Amino acid sequence: MRFLTDQDVYAASVQFLRNLGHDVATAAERGLSRSADSELLLLSHNDGRIFVTRDRDYGALVFVHSMSGGVIYLRILPSTLNAVHAELERVLQIYDESELQSAFIVVEPGRHRIRRAASDS
Questions:
Q1: 3-class secondary structure, 7
Q2: What residue numbers bound the domain in which 93 lies?
């Protein structure tokens, strides 16, 4: 799968996804650390990437402002890193890339919630 990670995503989470064999670009690597949230979400969508963040504000962009989905929101702290990574790996096994590109997924220790975003067609 292809991901774009927000600047707030832990380096350990980026490495975790890469170790699973995924194509992960980071906002920092692309020189986008100071970009607006809406710009990052749009770029992710246009690049066919699933956006990964620790910022809960993306839920408002997807559902209130009707921007495209494809967001994985990690409710993660250093103390819950391993548990959240285990659940993230489970999410990536359960859902295929096309399902994730049209959803908002909250991943937390031991569970996840998925909500389908509005279609942009």
A1: coil
A2: 2-116
